[in-house]
Write a structure and sequence with these properties.
The complex is a heterotetramer, with two copies of chain A and two copies of chain C. By secondary structure, chain A is an alpha/beta fold. Chain A has eleven helices and twelve strands. Chain A has helices at about 35-50, 85-95, 105-115, 115-125, 170-175, 190-200, 225, 230-235, 285-290, 315-330, 335; strands at about 55-60, 75-80, 100-105, 130-135, 180-185, 205-210, 235-240, 245, 250-255, 260-265, 300-305, 340-345. In chain A, a hairpin with a 4-residue loop joins strand 8 and strand 9. In chain A, helix 1 (about 35-50) crosses helix 6. By secondary structure, chain C is an alpha/beta fold. Classes of the chains: A alpha/beta, C alpha/beta. The interface between A and D is large, with 66 and 83 residues. Bound molecules: thiamine diphosphate (2 copies), iron/sulfur cluster (2 copies) and magnesium ion (MG) (2 copies).
Amino acid sequence: MVAPSQPQTSPQPPRKYTKIDFQTDQEVRWCPGCGDYAILNVAQQVFAQLGFPKEKMVMVSGIGCSSRFPYYVNTYGFHTIHGRAPAVATGVKLANPELQVWVATGDGDALSIGGNHFMHALRRNIDIKILLFNNRIYGLTKGQYSPTSVLGTINDKTAPFGTVDQPLNPISLSLASEATFVARSVDVYAKRLMDILKKAAEHKGSAFIEIYQNCNIYNDKAFDDFTDRPFRDDRNVMLEHGKPLIFAQGKKGIRLNGLKPEVVTLGENGITEKDLIVHDEHNPSLAYLLSRLNHPNFPEPIGVFRNDRMPSLDERLENQIADVKKAKGEGDLRKLLFAGDMWEVK
Amino acid sequence: MVAPSQPQTSPQPPRKYTKIDFQTDQEVRWCPGCGDYAILNVAQQVFAQLGFPKEKMVMVSGIGCSSRFPYYVNTYGFHTIHGRAPAVATGVKLANPELQVWVATGDGDALSIGGNHFMHALRRNIDIKILLFNNRIYGLTKGQYSPTSVLGTINDKTAPFGTVDQPLNPISLSLASEATFVARSVDVYAKRLMDILKKAAEHKGSAFIEIYQNCNIYNDKAFDDFTDRPFRDDRNVMLEHGKPLIFAQGKKGIRLNGLKPEVVTLGENGITEKDLIVHDEHNPSLAYLLSRLNHPNFPEPIGVFRNDRMPSLDERLENQIADVKKAKGEGDLRKLLFAGDMWEVK
Amino acid sequence: MTPPSASNVAAPRKQETLDQVTIRFAGDSGDGMQVTGGHFTNTSAVLGNDLSTFPDFPAEIRAPAGSLPGVSGFQIQFSSKDIHTPGDRPDVLVAFNPAALKVNLSDMPDNSVIIVNSDSFGEVDLKKAGCKTNPLEDGTLDKFQAYKIPITELTMKALESIKFKEKDRPNKERNKNFFALGILYWIYSRPLDTTMKTIERNFAKKSNADRPIVLAAQTALKAGHAYAEATELFRSQYTVAPAKYEPGTYRNIAGNQAIALGLVAASKLSGLQLFYGSYPITPASSILEELSQRKAFGVKTFQAEDEIAAVTAAIGASFAGALAVTGTSGPGVALKSEAINLAVMTELPLVIVDIQRGGPSTGLPTKTEQADLLQAMYGRNSESPVAILAPSSPAECFTMAIEACRIAIKYMTPVFLLSDGYLANGAEPWKIPEPSSLPKIEVKFRTEKEGFAPYLRNEVTLSREWAIPGTPGLEHRIGGIEKSHIQGNVNYDAENHDFMCRIRAAKIQRIAQDIPELKVHGPQDATTLVIGWGSTYGAIRAAVEDCQARGLKVARAHVRHLNPFPANLGKVLSRYKKVLVPEMNLGQFLFLLRAKFLVDAKGVNKVQGKPFMISELIEVIEKEAR
Amino acid sequence: MTPPSASNVAAPRKQETLDQVTIRFAGDSGDGMQVTGGHFTNTSAVLGNDLSTFPDFPAEIRAPAGSLPGVSGFQIQFSSKDIHTPGDRPDVLVAFNPAALKVNLSDMPDNSVIIVNSDSFGEVDLKKAGCKTNPLEDGTLDKFQAYKIPITELTMKALESIKFKEKDRPNKERNKNFFALGILYWIYSRPLDTTMKTIERNFAKKSNADRPIVLAAQTALKAGHAYAEATELFRSQYTVAPAKYEPGTYRNIAGNQAIALGLVAASKLSGLQLFYGSYPITPASSILEELSQRKAFGVKTFQAEDEIAAVTAAIGASFAGALAVTGTSGPGVALKSEAINLAVMTELPLVIVDIQRGGPSTGLPTKTEQADLLQAMYGRNSESPVAILAPSSPAECFTMAIEACRIAIKYMTPVFLLSDGYLANGAEPWKIPEPSSLPKIEVKFRTEKEGFAPYLRNEVTLSREWAIPGTPGLEHRIGGIEKSHIQGNVNYDAENHDFMCRIRAAKIQRIAQDIPELKVHGPQDATTLVIGWGSTYGAIRAAVEDCQARGLKVARAHVRHLNPFPANLGKVLSRYKKVLVPEMNLGQFLFLLRAKFLVDAKGVNKVQGKPFMISELIEVIEKEAR
Ligand SMILES: Cc1ncc(C[n+]2csc(CCOP(=O)(O)OP(=O)(O)O)c2C)c(N)n1
Ligand SMILES: Cc1ncc(C[n+]2csc(CCOP(=O)(O)OP(=O)(O)O)c2C)c(N)n1
Ligand code: SF4
Ligand code: SF4
Ligand SMILES: [Mg+2]
Ligand SMILES: [Mg+2]
């Protein structure tokens, strides 16, 4: 046991880890075939590769199938309550900015009950990484539709005649919440997901990653239309900073007609790569426009929509405290108490 | 007293009202000089002009100075609890779609504690009109900064060393929440505000109007920089559907350079009206892009950002009920109870 | 009542008659235990047995196949007598894998029957269940009548000739639960027809291509039955005669289903549109699920973004004149508490359905508990009186849902309906009432302008009038700030606030005049009273009746109105030397009784996520009542 | 103590000595009543009087000028004796307009002094206050010693020569409060220097251009004093001698300020970083405001998006090893209740400050009440024990804030600190403690890997250890689902749940060993006990002492630890024939006492948004204690 002390700040060489270091002794309790396994697998690999001390990593989650994530990652973990993970994570990070804080959440957890904390965590640019497992369904409570379920979906449980709620677009919403890092991947796109998680880890500030995740029990094949191997290339466009928006093995692209994006065939009507939108991770309005592209009218964009470095809330707060201490000196309790109009009784 | 019955649906000729019909016997309890007076005044005039039966109008609000609004409008009114007005209003409208439902709220009420309901009401396109009195401060609780307070603001109450939170942009956020009608005006722009409120009333679906409102006690002159008469024309751009973005008495305009908007001087370098962005209320991505323009880098856009007709939640629900009734007949309680595996005991 | 047709019974063996039997089905969550239990329940119900069931789900959707946390259970007691619980300890356990056996074995009395699917006791299966040795071989089952049947193999053989589509083929094996069901139907002399028909009906919506699936289930069922009949494995066949019921039409009903039906009925009885605002949460979600089917009744369900939106939308709907209900479980109630207070202050009718579950916090989400009583009473800032009701059995959920609506409307108040996970999922036979026999709920919206004031009160009920938007001339404004008496304007006066706090409390107390007095069951000279509330009813009744039968001087009473209490409760309590209060919590009702009546009552408390066993209560009563 | 310098006193008139005086300043919210009261308080404090204050704000920021709801009041009692309340009825009312006079007149005893600004009784002013006739002329004031002084005019005359900037000119007139203050300083022989210096200091930050503002305030003060001195209006001048205090350095402190200082102190005493997560709400906001100034102490304040984020961020900070505190008022507690349960389940230290206000719902947001006690006890789903403390005076808020932190950390538990609007804004002299005299708060984070288990408990406190992220080798996971004893893994077992529910309850009960026994004040042969909690302390003490002085056999006790109760509470209660429980609610503490100890205590209840008067309590005690 030791008395509390300030965290140390000396930089350390990256640790050598393997995936196994990030596994726990807990039995993984997702349904066989659930997309969550693939995500966990990638995350554990990424964590190993990061080499960041695992005792300084904290996994925070809400409630949902996806929110069981912390139990399976051998770091500090906090399985909190429904929807509140971003707020809990904000507290963790503010209290100890040395920690690397990850949030695992679901479409219900983050966007339904937790929508407000999600939005405010992002706009504050608190340095946490939010992994949203979007299966467009409430898995844990057995299959009610969610705020990302497609309008009109017949849902056996709570919308037997079809949903009447327009869904939310998590990418648009996160951008409008001023998120500085916004990306999308798919559970089965292991390589892409790995790249994105690494970039997110490197990003200082809020990072938001939407991961399309298959719930094979209650919403099976929700994304197969564009993620199945035969269509994948034709129905996805991979966003790469500085590169034009090309897909279908280089045959097609997306260009702007005024402010309206449209799919074009390269080589047809004299269209070349030069006519296409060039992706720019530093242009939030472009990112927003791209977030509106969706299968089937467009290829589904996968990759990093936005990646801008801005001061994070924790940095701003630490700096402010440091500045005040520099200006006024470290707080002296005696001076604080013995202040204002005082009088002496002898 | 009568037994409950379904609301009547026969269309009625507009009623003849004057502003006085919408005044109540309650003493108005805002600080002298508060921008809320101007908004109330305009709203009462608009309500009179609408000619909609006032007994079918409902004003719902949360908590805040702005949320006292319902007490001063002689319709049905519900001063609810902090942040929940959009949800209460959703219930009112769903229960009786014949009612015209307005929400009066503040930047704290709608975007801080009420952010989640705000976002979800909009994405469902429930037919309510949300007036957000944005004074960039918590007025009622005596002046703490709000989620729209400018970053770095020194706030005597809770940010004596300057705020460290990036603010939210209500227009961006409402667009990303799929709002079908989004507009902005200013308390003192009576004419504009009146036009916008009328358009909002006519819009079927969620309408969101941000109103810059001066709190002369805790955040005086927050908008004067661009709303003061001498600068008004130079520092505002009025959005009009189908018209190019021109301001400063026709001398300046805004054009797109790639996807980056820029201010240009008409006549200089051969720039003409044709080069400018033409406002299109039906293009949400353009609306979003415009929502990112702010004084002092750009003129502050005032007017309707988006106005699209889409089925509203209440319409969708009523239609679904009607369809089911048509298909299955009006529900029969006896049939419902006497169902499933039954057996007879004699 | 017509006796069951003894179909398929060829060569009867020893026939015995039993009063009651308790069976527990246990297997992996993927094994269809709830479906199997459901079929057995319906067949027994149609056969005329009294019965009570207890489904016990794992918290996970699909915990790892074969693991201990993945075990799903379903217990049913069926009887020729009046019964009130799903039985303490099973007479028969049907275990589909080692994990199911392991988890349930400690509940089995010596010499009880255990039927296992011996095909699922391979090495891997044993390992998944953490068994070091094979319980089928290591003597574990010695003290039981164990039947080790290769159910999987037998099922597959029976279905050999049925051709499944490529993709469905792995599902063939899943019919083993129907095979097992067939065995049990033979042992307990149940006809197959109800289940046969239900299988048919369940698949009715599907295409012809799914025909093999229907056929397979039916074939497996028949095969199991034939197997039991043919092999000499089972030496006896049992009959459990129909119970004596009041004449009428019956169906089997679970608590949540009964609440949903009760709410639809209340909507019809009041002429009000039903508005149900909810956010899914176990074990309350099935009410939302049931009600979203009821569009033909004009029921409006609103799946809100969270619990706060669910309740506030309901409050908005109530303001607009709907019958407004919001349903959830304990954590959801906590979130709704600020808003419920708005309904208290604005005096709007609102029914809050709380299907209690194990806590605190996320706790044991799929298990039952009765620990939200004090939260319902006091879980809001300041003095905030509401009415609280609690049904005592699945079927009673129907009447209590109607009662909650009646009180909410008549007294313009929030009303809590406290059910729990056990009632929600448990089922029992229900005598279906004729709608015409149900009491109308009177609703009078205010329409006269003359003399209208929003907080004018009825002298008898103390409730204000309901004046809804759309009514010309009654435009008025309400809200969460303290209101002036009668006029309902915002008011900060000291005396008015004190008065209003007291009148809100008095209004709730007035309800006591309008509810039945508490009935006591037991001998005149009883010295001990066992008093309970909610889902402990069955266990308490059975235990006390058992003790009474053996001459103990013990009586029982069950409280359904928890706030206000029945008017005679104090008098009742004062008659007994000893008062015992069994609850699935640490003594919440007990606490209210002690505070209100200064009675030195004693708690009998169990917080185990599961109901009392009758025997546990008998033990306590015997000790205390002597 | 040095006697006050009798500055500015030229020709003394009749000099009288008083034991204590109560003054109420009342005017429009724009009239600066709180500032005026504050100056009078500080001057009297520095003078060595004991004192107690009661500010009473309107709910509106600026209700319409001159209207009844716009009246703002500030009452101070100052004394040469030990006093405990701001006084029942004022000896002096200073009314700045007709509304202020009207609102406060009923509190004034016959023959008391009323000073009015006669300049603000014009026709318009009277109309705004709803006066049909002019109270200065219609005989209303006949039974009082009324002084009608043209304060505005006199102030303006005094400031004639001071040149204000164009834009500030309308503010000149606002100095009338300083003029009035000058009059009172003369009457009660107070020196001007403290106020003169404070005015100077308050403007220190401003530029020289604001010099006229400082000058105007000071000049008005002196002019008022000179006026009282010069005119023959006031026949007597009074002295209230310094009270007898323990030696030490004193300052005046209000409850919320004391809580903020207490939290900073607890941070220093524990060596933990203070994290305060809050969402503004009246009357709790000033704690957030005070703490956001304390960056030099490394205090991290988080103004959250709502109460739920405020508490959950605090829980996150606690998990990470900070001293985590969240503050709010009743409606905010309701919203936080689900999350507080997470802290109960995860057994993390957390202090929840609840500055109670009038309810239910939005209620009377600026008024005081004590009605969140049962919410704190029971306002969460399931069995959810927490510790609850309540300070009894503004100054005691300091020590109780430290005590809350101590218990939270030592017992790894949420702790409620229940203050209220009256304590929050009321002020009293506080003997400033030497930081070195404050008890250290021991914190030991777990670091040894060997034998670590997240839910291993200390045998004495039953609390688990605090193992924070950043500690190598102790990586572990906690959460809201039920945990297994010791290992802390997710666990759905029946017996474990029961055990854990009971051990969580037992842990809180253990705190009783660690807190002082309850002290009783009164004669050995007392037959009546008056027992209270929280801010009623002053009124109860004064009332009981008054009765005791007249020989009534009455004792008193005040409970500061409400859960668990002091160990001897039951024994104390059993000693009295009669137990009276005054509370500003409908009987919540009463309820706990009755339930726990089966004592037939009697409530003395007032829910008026304002504290008890001593006389009210005396009346009840006299009736009951005979
Ligand atoms: C306060 C509260 N309300 C409701 C629930 C029930 N609940 C648990 S998880 C969940 C939704 C889960 O959906 P999602 O976040 O999409 O996660 P998934 O299971 O699909 O991964 C709900 C409604 C709860 N646990 N707590
Ligand atoms: C649950 C709850 N939390 C906090 C408060 C305190 N509160 C009342 S209004 C308000 C903010 C008001 O700000 P805004 O919505 O911008 O309205 P304004 O007064 O500026 O018009 C706050 C924090 C409350 N009434 N209820
Ligand atoms: S229910 Fe769906 S999301 Fe949850 S574990 Fe199963 S497959 Fe995965
Ligand atoms: S505080 Fe500000 S917003 Fe509130 S009424 Fe006064 S001026 Fe208006
Ligand atoms: Mg999901
Ligand atoms: Mg505001």
